[in-house]
Amino acid sequence: MDPISVLAQINVDITGSIANVGYGLAAIGPAIGVGIVVGKTIEGIARQPELSGKLQGTMWIGIAFTEALAFVGIGVAFLFGY
Q: What does pTM read for this prediction?
């Protein structure tokens, strides 16, 4: 039997949801955002160490808002994935 006829006999049944891929792509943005927020906070603390408390508080608020985007992404994946 030649390989082409073997490949022609294979019946592939692909089922699933594209929502998993969508959530994976939706998680990239918040990950980049958190990296930028933390990086800029470290840069600000290096420039003015006396403001570290205020900068860290603002950083945590920024991280919370940025991670909310990831939760929206997973919510949409569950909502439209099934």
A: 0.64
